[in-house]
Write a structure and sequence with these properties.
- This protein is an alpha+beta fold.
- It has a domain of about 140 residues: Metal Binding Protein, Guanine Nucleotide Exchange Factor, Chain A.
- Helices cover about 25% and strands about 10% of the residues.
- Strands 3-7-6-5-4 form a five-stranded antiparallel β-sheet.
- Strand 1 and strand 2 form a beta hairpin.
- The chain starts with a helix and ends in a 16-residue tail after the last strand.
- Keywords: Signal.
- This is Peptide-methionine (R)-S-oxide reductase.
- InterPro entries: Mss4-like_sf (IPR011057).
């Protein structure tokens, strides 16, 4: 039986423990292992049962978009020659075998992206393509200048897009806030703030080369 002193020590230890995010307990599906209904649906239903509806122009999608396919949640792996020197293995794991994890905060600033964005003529728009399929997913900046886009992204740790910068033909938002491509690529999450929807996106998910017929911008 625990003594009173032992109980007090235990209570003290528990109260001083740092909070742990729910996502820390969700296993990341290893690369090369096909996702199953158990890992992609049942776990999500239990832990993210509170579904949301985001106002237009956000286009909602359903869980079937992320159903198991030939390569995780996608029919194909990520492209070999990703833009901005993004890491292939990191991209393939996050895009295709993952629903909750992300590249580490600030990763996008370790790539060549920021320098190339600032060097773009007149700080013009950049099109971000699906790292799997090469379909356009985001075009930024729109409704602001490049420095504003980079500054907001840096403050959050990941590229952050607004509604007008999303190519809604190819992007969907699920009820738990997960942002995905229509082809099953995990992109990130919608984390609304006082300005509206903010799509916090992994650079490795949108570093693809354009599909044939689309010019790189």
């Amino acid at each position: 039986m625990l003594t009173r002193q032992s109980l007090l020590l235990l209570a003290s230890a528990l109260s001083s423990s740092p909070p742990v995010s729910v996502s820390a307990f969700i296993p990341l599906v290893p690369r090369g292992v096909a996702t199953t209904k158990t890992t992609t649906t049942s776990s999500r239903n239990m832990m993210f049962s509170k579904k949301k509806e985001y106002a237009a122009p956000c286009v909602m999608g359903d869980e079937s978009i992320m159903s198991p396919k030939a390569h995780g949640t996608s029919a194909v792996p990520v492209q070999k020659d990703l833009r901005w020197n993004c890491d292939y293995d990191t991209a393939d794991r996050i895009c295709n075998f993952n629903r909750h994890y992300a590249e580490y905060a600030g990763y996008w600033e370790t790539t060549t992206f920021v320098d190339e964005a600032r060097a773009a003529k007149g700080g013009g728009e950049i099109t971000f393509y699906d790292s799997n399929t090469g379909k356009p997913l985001f075009v930024a900046p729109r409704g602001r200048d490049m420095e504003s886009f980079l500054r907001e992204s840096a403050s959050h740790g990941w590229p952050s897009f607004r509604d007008e910068e999303v190519v809604w033909d190819n992007v969907r938002c699920l009820g738990d806030g997960e942002a995905v491509s229509v082809d099953g690529t995990h992109l990130g999450h919608n984390l609304p703030d006082g300005k509206g929807n903010r799509y916090c996106i992994n650079l490795v998910s949108v570093a693809g080369r354009p599909a044939e017929g689309d010019g790189e911008k």
